[in-house]
Inverse folding.
């Protein structure tokens, strides 16, 4: 079975503080992991994927197969980062994404 | 490009009524997904299509829910009869090269 767990429903930080949104997954094969973001009044959109190993808007995420985690990190949070963040998994040979329940990030001034 | 288009954006109906949600995917995308978003359960996949053919409908909650994709540019999700617990935001997404592009969603309220 494929499962994604985001243990925090809400993460509240101050501007300039480091941010880490946790994501753990359960999958016996080799997964593809994604982070999607939904800003207020905007559509859900892809933020980054692990195979690209890219930094988007200052965010990075490293796949840790030993810990089955794909945590999203940013060293200095900005107010415009406030949004809903979803971690998602795609299993090998599968076409669908399995999403976590999401974490709302609130960055205060 | 307007992206994925969904209609209506908001729907308020009474229990027992039929509800039809509509989606127009991005042209050229060969996969279409229907999701339901709730506070408690987050984003759940209901059904997805490949080249207009339903592939996996294991997420459809019960027989009251049905989905069709008569052609590459249109899909519907129907709930009949609707119940208050169906209240949620329903998203449609189409996919190109492993990236899903989401529509703005339809907020359904069943009274």
């Amino acid at each position: 079975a494929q499962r994604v767990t985001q243990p925090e429903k809400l993460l509240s930080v101050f501007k300039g503080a480091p941010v880490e949104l946790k994501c753990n997954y359960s999958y016996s094969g080799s997964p593809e992991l994604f982070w999607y973001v939904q800003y207020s009044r905007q559509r859900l959109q892809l933020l980054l994927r692990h195979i690209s190993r890219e930094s988007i808007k200052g965010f990075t995420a490293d796949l840790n197969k030993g810990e089955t985690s794909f945590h999203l990190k940013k060293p200095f949070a900005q107010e415009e980062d406030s949004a809903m963040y979803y971690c998602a998994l795609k299993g090998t040979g599968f076409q669908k994404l399995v999403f976590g329940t999401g974490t709302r990030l609130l960055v205060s001034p | 490009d307007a992206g994925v288009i969904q209609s209506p954006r908001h729907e308020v109906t009474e229990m027992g009524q039929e509800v039809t949600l509509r989606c127009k995917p991005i042209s050229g995308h060969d996969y279409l997904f229907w999701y339901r978003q709730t506070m408690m359960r987050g984003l759940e996949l209901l059904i997805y299509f490949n080249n207009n053919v339903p592939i996996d409908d294991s997420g459809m909650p019960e027989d009251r829910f049905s989905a069709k994709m008569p052609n590459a540019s249109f899909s519907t999700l129907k709930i009949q009869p609707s119940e208050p617990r169906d209240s949620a935001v329903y998203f449609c997404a189409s996919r190109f090269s492993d990236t899903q592009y989401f529509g703005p969603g339809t907020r359904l309220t069943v009274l």
Summary: DSSP finds no helices and eleven strands in chain A. The mean pLDDT of chain A is 93.
